[in-house]
């Protein structure tokens, strides 16, 4: 069975986890998703999202059951992240949402784009 998945962090093209889990898969689309806020914890180099008033830049991929199970394990689903349905053109896709609220160590990324944030921070 094929699953549509939206990725926004280290699973995006050009980043380390993409090469492990999504290498060779065709990116179906670049999609802006509303209703989420993007964060990172100060000292940690991974992003997370929570429901909010912002927007998020994502890449959509179609994956099989085996890759979906591997992604669930990678994301610590359902304990650290939960997999939630998001409506997109032509149906829905899955997205991983952080299971806790941001805290004092959390830094909001207002641009909603993890890749852009990394490029601006590092460059």
UniProtKB/TrEMBL annotation:
This is Gamma-glutamylcyclotransferase family protein. It holds the Pfam family GGACT. GO terms for molecular function: gamma-glutamylaminecyclotransferase activity. It comes from Stentor coeruleus. Transmembrane segments: none annotated. InterPro entries: AIG2-like_dom (IPR009288), GGACT (IPR039126), GGCT-like (IPR013024), GGCT-like_sf (IPR036568). Residues 6-115 form the Gamma-glutamylcyclotransferase AIG2-like domain. The active site is at residue 75. It comes from the Eukaryota. GO terms for cellular component: cytosol. Belongs to the gamma-glutamylcyclotransferase family.
């Amino acid at each position: 069975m094929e699953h549509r998945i939206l990725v926004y962090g280290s699973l995006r093209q050009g980043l380390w986890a993409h090469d492990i889990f999504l290498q060779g898969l065709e990116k179906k689309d670049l999609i802006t998703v509303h209703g989420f806020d993007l964060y990172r914890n100060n000292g940690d180099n991974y992003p997370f999202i929570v429901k909010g008033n912002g927007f998020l830049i994502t890449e959509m991929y179609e994956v099989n059951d085996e890759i979906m199970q591997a992604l669930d394990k990678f994301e610590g689903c359902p304990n650290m992240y939960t997999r939630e349905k998001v409506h997109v053109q032509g149906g829905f896709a899955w997205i991983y949402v952080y299971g806790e609220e941001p805290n004092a160590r959390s830094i909001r990324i207002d641009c909603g784009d993890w890749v852009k944030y990394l490029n601006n921070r590092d460059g």
